[in-house]
Design goal:
Blueprint: H1 15-19, E1 22-30, E2 33-35, H2 37-50, H3 59-73, E3 78-85, E4 102-108, H4 116-119, E5 122-126, H5 134-137, H6 145-156, E6 161-163, E7 178-182, E8 187-190, H7 200-209, E9 219-222, H8 227-230, E10 235-240, E11 244-251, E12 254-255, H9 263-278, E13 283-285
Parallel strand pairs: 5-6, 5-11, 8-9
Antiparallel strand pairs: 1-2, 1-3, 2-13, 3-4, 7-8, 7-10, 10-11, 11-12
The structure holds pyridoxal-5'-phosphate.
Length: 288
C-alpha cells in the first residue's frame, strides 16, 4: 500500500493499459464504513468472468485488500475504485501466457457534482453516440469511450449529461449513472438491466422505493421504456453511487414534468442517504 499517488504505478505493457482488457468497480465510503461492497464485488467478479480475466485472488482476499487499503487511507468519506487487469507481458491481442492479473485499489475523494444539480436539477440530451451492445454494456470494463464521448458532447452543448437510447427506441442509461422515471400515474419505471449496467444504487433504490408505494408512488416497475413515453414522465432521475439520486428537469431542451425537481427524487435521495448510514447488513466497518 502506498500513500503517495505518484507511487501507484501500472506496468505500461499491462493488457488493461493498451488493449482495455480490464474491469473495475467503485464503492462508497460513508462515515468510516464501506457501503454495499458485496453488491459491487458481485458485479466486479461477473465483469471479470465475462472479460475472461483471471481473478487475482479469491473474493475474500480482494475484500480484505479493499478494506485494508481504505483503512490505510484514513478517509472516512469518499470512494474506492478497484481494477482487475489482464496483466503485463504482451503487446498483442491475447494476454501473455501465464500473465499475472493485476489488482489495483485506489481510495479517493469521490466525484463531486454541483449543488445546483440537486437544488435546480440537471439538463440532459440524447447522445448521438450509439449505445454499447448489451454484452459490453453489462460488463464494467475499462472501455468507457462511448460514455466519455457522450459526456463531452453534452458538455459542449452546455448540458450536464447525455442519455443512451437503444436500437428499439428505449431508454438506456447515462454516462456513469442509470436513469429512471416517474410516470404521470406515479409509477417508478426503470429500464431493464439486460442491456445497461446493473447499477448497485438503482437495484437498492428499487427495493427502497417500495416503501413509497401508497404515498408518493403507485408502483415500481423494471421494463422497457420507449423514449416517447419517457418524455411524458412527471419526473426523471439520475441514479448512481457517486450522484446518489438527482432530478433531471430538462431533456433535449424540453421540460420534464413542470421543469422543477420533483418530490420522488427528493424522497428517494433521503431514503438512500439514510440507508448508506444505517443499513448495518450493507456496511463494513473499516479498522482505521
Ligand atoms: C455506465 C454506468 N451505468 C450506471 C452506473 C451506476 O452504477 P452504480 O449505481 O453501481 O454506481 C455506472 C456507475 O458505475 C456506470 O458506469
Amino acid at each position: 500500500i502506498v500513500t503517495d499517488p505518484a507511487l501507484m504505478v501500472v506496468p505500461f505493457d499491462d493488457h488493461m493499459v493498451h488493449r482495455g482488457h480490464g474491469v473495475f468497480d467503485t464503492a462508497a465510503i460513508v462515515e468510516g464504513k464501506i457501503y454495499d461492497l458485496e453488491a459491487h464485488l458481485d458485479r466486479f467478479i461477473r465483469s471479470a468472468r465475462t472479460s475472461r480475466l483471471t481473478l487475482p485472488c479469491p473474493r475474500e482476499e480482494m475484500r480484505e485488500l479493499i478494506v485494508a487499503t481504505t483503512a490505510a487511507s484514513g478517509k472516512r468519506d469518499g470512494s474506492i475504485r478497484y481494477w482487475i487487469s489482464g496483466g503485463p507481458g504482451s503487446l498483442g491481442l491475447a494476454p501473455a501466457t501465464g500473465a499475472e492479473p493485476g489488482f489495483f485499489v485506489m481510495i479517493f475523494a469521490g466525484l463531486a457534482y454541483p449543488d445546483t444539480w440537486f437544488s435546480q436539477g440537471l439538463r440532459v440530451m440524447t447522445t448521438t453516440y450509439p449505445i454499447k451492445p448489451a454484452l459490453y454494456a453489462v460488463t464494467k470494463s475499462t472501455n468507457y469511450l462511448p460514455n466519455v464521448l457522450m459526456q463531452l458532447e453534452a458538455q459542449e452543448a452546455g448540458l450536464d449529461n447525455g442519455v443512451f437510447v437503444d436500437a428499439d427506441g428505449n431508454v438506456g442509461e447515462s454516462s456513469n449513472m442509470n436513469v429512471a422515471f416517474v410516470t404521470p400515474g406515479g409509477v417508478l419505471k426503470h429500464p431493464r438491466f439486460d442491456h445497461i449496467l446493473s447499477g448497485c444504487t438503482s437495484l437498492r433504490l428499487l427495493e427502497l422505493a417500495r416503501g413509497l408505494v401508497g404515498s408518493r408512488l403507485s408502483g415500481v416497475e423494471v421494463c422497457d421504456i420507449p423514449v416517447s413515453e419517457a418524455r411524458g414522465a412527471r419526473e426523471m432521475l439520475l441514479i448512481g453511487s457517486s450522484v446518489k439520486v438527482a432530478p433531471i428537469v430538462e431533456w433535449d431542451r424540453a421540460p420534464i414534468g413542470d421543469g422543477k425537481p420533483g418530490p420522488v427524487a427528493h424522497a428517494l435521495r433521503e431514503l438512500l442517504e439514510q440507508d448508506m448510514r444505517s443499513a448495518t447488513d450493507r456496511l463494513i466497518d473499516v479498522p482505521y
